[in-house]
Amino acid sequence: DLKDVVKALLDADGLNYGNLPKGLLSFHSYPEGNRTPVGEHLTEGTYYAKDKDDNVRVHFTVSAEHQALFELLVAARKPVYAHKLHVTFEVGFSVQKTATDTLAVDKNNEPFRNEDGSLLFRPGGHGALIENLNDIDADVIFIKNIDNVVPDRLKENEARYKNLLAGVLVDMQSRGYHYLQKLDQGNYTAEDLAEMLSFTENELCISHPRDFDSDEVLAVYLREKLDRPFRVCGMVKNVGEPGGGPFLAVNRDGTISPQILESSQINKEDVQALNAFKNGSHFNPVDLVCGVRNYRGEKYDLTRHVDPDTGFISLKSKNGKELKALELPGLWNGAMSDWNTVFVEVPISTFNPVKTV
């Protein structure tokens, strides 16, 4: 009966799905066997993350308790996919760093203690993964969630829009590089500065509240805005999925720029802001392409482009006691707040997460 089916799916003496992360579950069926999201990501990587030597680099952030299982799965399946797809896979793993854990407090804002009297530190949320992203040695990085995968028959459509997003990134970043070289060399005219300002205003959608007294002041402003990581974010039409979306937000320096906002960042007392969030036209499916080097080929220190003010406090419980947990700025929200951001609409067909059975 149904109970037996559920038991076989979830219990340890069955498929043990109740104790496994989604990345290790069988998602799609093929004639040669079932495929997990890990296998789908490896396969998908061959469509848009393959270099001229047919190397495909894929990195998974996983929980420490499941890393060994992920490594076993990759070790078993990687040779099969590599032979079938005529590529070489370089697969890396990382876990959220314990140094990013945050101290929990009780309802009186006193440090929360475990039953043995030790202080309770909790993972700081997915924003802590900016540290993992910072450790990846690459020019361009595609980011997506583990469960947002499609079977092979839909991968060409998926890859088409990934390549389009990457093309927009390369175009925007190349123009930024060109302008930064001019600024660093002092090889610019007033007309050049006007062109650069137009680029920041009309292409990067950054608005500023002040006038510039001189070309020198404007050049300093432009350099500060252009010399930072770039990201292009695919956005899908809002169909009622929970999560964040694309908005224009006021930054600490008074400028306004595109940001991905989550509900936790919205002032619930501000009716206008709340309605704008609820009625937003688009939704963030976590479909990012990131450029993390400057025009000299040097990696940006991504931890220097985080807005620490965008962290938030969530209510949790442990051992029947309420506690307050500090969540770090979200990975694609506050942790990338000081990046240059471009939103591109992509079709809903590129968003295929598995949230329910």
Structure description:
This protein is of the alpha+beta class. The protein has one domain (96-350). Helices cover 31% and strands 21% of the residues. The chain has eight helices and 15 strands. It has helices spanning 2-10, 37-48, 67-85, 130-135, 155-185, 190-203, 215-226, 271-278, and strands at 28-30, 33-35, 55-61, 88-94, 102-103, 121-122, 140-144, 230-237, 245-250, 256-261, 282-283, 287-291, 312-318, 321-327, 340-345. The strands form six sheets. Strands 7, 8, 11, 12 and 15 form a five-stranded mixed sheet that branches. α3 links the parallel β3 (55-61) and β4 (88-94). α5 (155-185) packs antiparallel against α7. The protein is globular. The two termini are 17 Å apart.
Outline the secondary-structure elements.
Layout: H1 2-10, E1 28-30, E2 33-35, H2 37-48, E3 55-61, H3 67-85, E4 88-94, E5 102-103, E6 121-122, H4 130-135, E7 140-144, H5 155-185, H6 190-203, H7 215-226, E8 230-237, E9 245-250, E10 256-261, H8 271-278, E11 282-283, E12 287-291, E13 312-318, E14 321-327, E15 340-345
Parallel strand pairs: 3-4, 8-15
Antiparallel strand pairs: 1-2, 5-6, 7-12, 8-11, 8-12, 9-10, 13-14
Helix pairs in contact: 2-3, 5-7, 6-7
